[in-house]
Design brief:
The chain is built from 4 helices and 4 strands, in the order E-H-E-H-E-H-E-H. The chain is an alpha/beta fold.
Length: 126
């Protein structure tokens, strides 16, 4: 299977402040992509952005569980990056402990970030 040519195209990456999101950003930037980095961690986001090769990258501080904020962000991304080629959703949260010890509020928060956050950004960018 041929590699996707990302040179000059934009990739939007959620969870870009650390872990898989940061590494995917580094890999795609090294292949010439412009990256829109999304996360709720400002320090990690800045560190990832500073480590990227190339130029034209943008950072966006966002709570993906906030529908209205995500819709507004999609408009900002479209203005800065008219050709979004890929969306990589790496954002996610977790809590340590047994599931029967989590409150319903904690479980809803996890689902809001891990499930609905992915749905929100995907729908907003379509």
């Amino acid at each position: 299977m041929p590699r996707l040519d990302v040179s000059g195209a934009t990739s939007v990456i959620t969870g870009a402040a650390s872990g898989m999101g940061a590494e995917v950003a580094r890999q795609l930037a090294a292949r010439g992509a412009r990256i829109a980095l999304l996360d709720c961690n400002p320090d990690g986001l800045a560190a990832t952005a500073a480590a990227l090769a190339g130029s034209g990258h943008t950072t966006h501080l966002i709570d993906l569980s906030d529908d209205a904020a995500v819709a507004a962000l999609a408009t900002q991304i479209a203005a800065a990056h008219p050709h979004v080629q890929t969306l990589v959703t790496c954002a996610g949260s977790s809590m340590l402990g047994d599931i029967d010890q989590l409150t319903m509020e904690e479980m809803r928060w996890l689902m809001d970030v891990n499930l609905w956050g992915t749905v929100n950004i995907t729908k907003a960018l379509l």
